[in-house]
Amino acid sequence: MEHIRTTKVEQVKLLDRFSTSNKSLTGTLYLTATHLLFIDSHQKETWILHHHIALVEKLALTTSGCPLVIQCKNFRIVHFIVPRERDCHDIYNSLLQLSKQAKYEDLYAFSYNPKQNDSERLRGWQLVDLTEEYKRMGLPNSNWQLSDANRDYKICETYPRELYVPRIASKPIIVGSSKFRSKGRFPVLSYYHQNKEAAICRCSQPLSGFSARCLEDEHLLQAISKANPANRYMYVMDTRPRLNAMANRAAGKGYENEDNYSNIRFQFVGIENIHVMRSSLQKLLEVSGSRGLSVSDFYSGLEGAGWLRHIKAVTDAAIFLAKVLIEKDWISFGHKYSDRCGHLDGDPKEVSPVFTQFLECVWHLTEQFPQAFEFNEAFLLQIHEHIHSCQFGNFIGNCQKEREELKLKEKTYSLWPFLLHDQKKYFNPLYSSTSQKLAVLEPNTVSFNFKFWRNMYHQFDRTLHPRQSVFNIIMNMNEQNKQLQKDVKDLESQIKQHKNKQTDGVLTKELLNSVRPESPALKTSLCLKEQTLLPVKDALRTVEGSSPADNRYSEYADEFSKAEPAVVSSEYGVARMTC
Amino acid sequence: MEFAELIKTPRVDNVVLHRPFYPAVEGTLCLTGHHLILSSRQDNTEELWLLHSNIDAIDKRFVGPLGTIIIKCKDFRIIQLDIPGMEECLNIASSIEALSTLDSITLMYPFFYRPMFEVIEDGWHSFLPEQEFELYSSATSEWRLSYVNKEFAVCPSYPPIVIVPKAIDDEALRKVATFRHGGRFPVLSYYHKKNGMVIMRSGQPLTGTNGRRCKEDEKLINATLRAGKRGYIIDTRPLNVAQQARAKGGGFEQEAHYPQWRRIHKSIERYHILQESLIKLVEACNDQTHNMDRWLSRLEASNWLTHIKEILTTACLAAQCLDREGASILIHGTEGTDSTLQVTSLAQIILEPRSRTIQGFEALIEREWLQAGHPFQQRCAQSAYCNSKQKWESPVFLLFLDCVWQILRQFPCSFEFNENLLIMLFEHAYASQFGTFLGNNESERCKLKLQQKTMSLWSWVNRPSELSKFANPLFEANNLVIWPSVAPQSLQLWEGIFLRWNRSSKYLDEAYEEMVNIIEYNKELQAKVNILRRQLAELETEDGMQESP
């Protein structure tokens, strides 16, 4: 709180990013310990989490005030005009401090309190159980076993404690191999395909330099090869471009020398390193953020940024993805979250959008296989949101060891139960687990399949999106169908009750032998009953409101139902006409 | 019969057919006057019926005695025939070449086609101008039907009946026609009931270099303005192009002579520039070996989406002038038969809910494209694979359909029809068994006696069994104006047309079916709940009656 000097500024203008006529909303800006909040004159709230802020800029003073531009990690860009320079300066300084925490303990996750008790919290953390995950893959088995070699993070700090290795690989071999691998990341099992008895392993580059070799490492790879009895060869895929791998030899690192490993085939996939990725995304955002963009500028910009090229490269190489894979592949195996996502004020060169890229690859698969994923696009966007939000403990820290030291499980909450709680929003209504025999997806990676992910990079630029969302309608309809099914059951049982009652009644009726004319009440009651149905149908078109901080996705989704946004009119119409 | 002369080898056995998404199949190839047929005989399902008029270009290749013909269709599909025997192959190739480029329209398939379906409503009479005018006449008395062009003498590319301001008599129209390109005097295209403003269209004024003027022309378009109101003239050409047009006798409305009108120039491309754009785009889509950079740069270089953006932007501008500014507009380019029609028809899609229904959209095609004299015969003579680059070949209509698709994608619940209707119209504009898209204007269609000699496309489409294929399950009438986004990020390649033969849409189709199932199930449940509620209500009243003595 010591960073906040001004908590409230009135008469602030929020400019429309793509407007050429400086269209704006006027409202009040609030600064809290965790969020920046803007409430416009229509009482619409825009919440920005401090951790989401990637860049704050104070532009040169104009006649209407002092412009403040905030770029967020979730690709939101807001442009405020603060009437007094002093206020602007205060907010600017506060945001600079608040958006970059020097210590893990200052992150939002450590102060976020969703009113859960300890056991709920613990259950949340146990939701994704990696041991269960391995069991699902059929492990351990006769070829693979759990190794305790890394129990105390002695061999490799960035690996988790529990690792699966070939049964025939002894501890000395593992230790020996780890010394030969960058940061001790020796080859371990990542995914085991039960039906085909094939495994995906992963490791870091060998410290081969120009000629060094390591017998233990060669043994370990040999052991892995033997643990895949169904295949004669083992492939080693180096995800780097060959040139990078060669260059690394000068630094004492490098790649496996084919001559030293038998039955192994090597292949370079050509995924660029984090630095290239970072600047690529930067270029992409610059292009898509420019005003009055022409189609050819957009496409040459897409090409120039090379982002889709990287996405294609990753997809070309990637194979299996899902929620559990995120947990297993990325978190437990030491994707350097904190560094790559820039949570802490550290080396800017270590920041890279690798995870964003992974999510985008998954999105491309969902586009090609609309029925193969249980989750929808909102789920991917929400995960992306929380990687940067630091609201939950899942994505904090660089490896399991660091995460244990931070006592994340005691001090913070896990994201998964929160997503699970809202799972209705993240279900893919078209998901089909049975009809498609899609055990393994075979994505088409011809270039024309890769498209610009508008809902990610323009998530908050509502004017660029379709005005009606088929997806939301189907999702709501699916929900409504469940309700209707229940209604049908309820009604049927009520009718049954009545009929039972009536058979008793009929006896009395016959006894009394009384027949009455049809009451006028009957007609009116019928109308009333049917009318109660109608509002449900109307509700289909509007997406339920949501708390602003957690559900950004639906924030623009409710806009879909309105059919008359004024994009074209102001930007491409009047503006041109008057000149 | 002339066809027999062109078919040297009517039948070849053991021909192998390769086509997208199907395994290769061996069978007998037959050539008829209008079709290329391949039948595998053992199995009736493996049959190919291809209209010769759908063939855009063919390539021949020989490896030893085995000849290969690669057939490139106007709908962008590419199929391959392996034909044993050099002579047979050459004969087949030359026959196909001759039959797919017949000069005489009366030899085209529509003149020979005999429908196997029952005609419920004759499509030739589905959209009569008088009926269309009736829709307006209840709202306004400022317009009238004019029969001045009854003999196609005043304007050869106009229909016999047009709608003009009531205050202007036929004599004045004749004079105006001499002042407008191709005799295309300003006529009503759309009447906006909300505020009584209109869209008119015409050919360019023939001002020439010496600034010729025509009092009747000025009077005609001023007659559409309310007192004290200004209107907009949208010229679909950039200013410099319009200026250059003066040297050839054309030109644009001078401010001095049209003080109540403000002129806006846009730049919608025409003719071969669009055709080249299409050729480049289809080429890029067909090459699956491109890396990402190459794909993006070729997509950009085709400029297809740039054209889409420009057309949509102009249409939105026109719609905005009408709806937001409350001003009437006149739209023209040079001839007034291409970009002009793209803009007037798209503006109606944006403004008019009726044009987003199936019937209304068909009426729009009939009114704004067929009756308005878009030269389909010339524009759609060849498609993306043809080498003979003729100036008049141009995918103007396809661009319009693509723009409609873009709006449909942004407002998926506001259209009664789905993408399939647009694809179907594209196919039939280029090759069809129906007479609807034959000829370049009403005058030619009259001379060809199409109404008597051929079947209308609408007769076939507007039967319940066909209509169900084109119905959008998400449709819910939306009476508002729909403003699409025209930002490059919002525009997409129309995969249903351009990637149709290059990647399987199996999973997307299955997902679509699942969506339809959910919607159908929802309707079913709603109906069931209603019935049960009624039942329950009846029971409750009966109970009530029993209880109260």
Give a verbal description of the structure.
The complex is a heterodimer of chains A (579) and B (549). With 579 residues, chain A is an alpha+beta fold. In chain A, 42% of the residues lie in helices and 13% in strands. Chain A contains 24 helices and 13 strands. In chain A, the strands form four sheets. Chain A has a seven-stranded antiparallel beta sheet with strand order 4-3-2-1-7-6-5, with helices on one face. A two-stranded antiparallel ribbon of chain A has the order 8-9. In chain A, strands 10-11 form a two-stranded antiparallel sheet. The longest helix of chain A has 43 residues, at 470-512. Chain A is globular and about 70 Å long. Chain B is of the alpha+beta class. Chain B has 20 helices and 14 strands. In chain B, helix 9 (304-323) packs across helix 10 (339-351). Chain B is globular. The interface between A and B is large, with 90 and 84 residues. Chain A: Keywords: Coiled coil, Hydrolase. Chain A: Substrate binds at residues 273-274. Chain A: Belongs to the protein-tyrosine phosphatase family. Non-receptor class myotubularin subfamily.
What's the quick description here?
Chain A is an alpha+beta fold. Chain A has helices spanning 85-99, 108-111, 118-126, 130-136, 171-180, 215-226, 242-249, 274-288, 295-305, 307-317, 323-332, 337-341, 354-368, 377-389, 400-405, 408-411, 416-421, 423-426, 454-457, 470-512, 521-531, 534-538, 552-557, 567-578; strands at residues 8-15, 24-31, 35-40, 45-49, 53-58, 66-72, 77-82, 144-147, 163-166, 188-193, 198-202, 234-238, 264-268.
